[in-house]
Amino acid sequence: MNYSYSIIKSSICKLDLTKDEDYVHVYFVLSGNVKMLRKGKTLIYKTGEFFIQKPDKIPLEIEVNKGCIIYLAIHKNYFEKYYMKNTLNTENNFEIHHHIKDSFMNIIRNMYEKNYLEADICFIKMLNYLRVYLEIFDNYLFRPTLSKTINEIIEYINDNYKEPLKLCVVARELFYNESFISRKFKEEMNVTFTEYLTNVRLCNLAEYLIVRGEDNGIWEEFGFPSQRAFLKRFKETYHMTPREFILSTQYYRNPQHAITESVYTEVMKYLQYDKSSVNEMS
């Protein structure tokens, strides 16, 4: 998969990062603190906090003070405007932040443990919430609609996306007028019912490809009308074939930034602390 990581440890240093316009950069402060100048203001991020740099922003100059930061560089192609089914379960910003940080740390943990399959699964989960985080103030379909009718349709699609769904079937099952929900869906979600359904299938299918490691007959299992239609949409979304997608999950870069035992220990401490904090709040 097209992402890489870097680990920066320093007493005090200044770094000019994120010069690559094709990548979204996610920074996690593992220890110490980080100072950053943004819009004329100095922002300070402490241990356990994260920040994100989008491709369309100017390069960051950050100061690492007696600590360690880890950042992931994720290709912008992963941030297409489609919806991941789990995001509707996100109730607030705290929960979004928790899921991003938890997935981030588990990516690093599994990379150290050489459990690359699980690392990629954590990466896909993190993307779910990064899309919500990045676009929460835009009218994209990452953002749940306020329409009760459309949310009901979304929930139905998310639960039944492997079935041979059509708009007329959903309308009949939920007792809605087909023409009405066709128009309403487009207004609320900025995509058609069919486009949304296809993208939900592709999102879930991607994780399945990583776990299974082969794509034989997968188009039928996920409700696509033909293999040709499936391949066309898959290439449009991921810019590679399913086979290339599977092979890309086996390729890992940045040996010069190998995760050390001390970094791994810090990651495990954070995961244990974060788990106990969440349990206390629940």
TrEMBL record:
Q: Any idea where the HTH araC/xylS-type domain is?
A: 151-248
State if ATP-binding is listed as a keyword: no
GO MF terms, alphabetically ordered: DNA-binding transcription factor activity; sequence-specific DNA binding
Keywords tagged on the record: DNA-binding, Transcription, Transcription regulation
Q: Which Pfam family name is an example for this entry?
A: HTH_18
Record carries keyword Cytoplasm: no
Q: Which InterPro entries match?
A: Homeodomain-like_sf (IPR009057), HTH_AraC (IPR018060)
Q: What is this protein called?
A: Helix-turn-helix transcriptional regulator
Species of the source: Staphylococcus condimenti
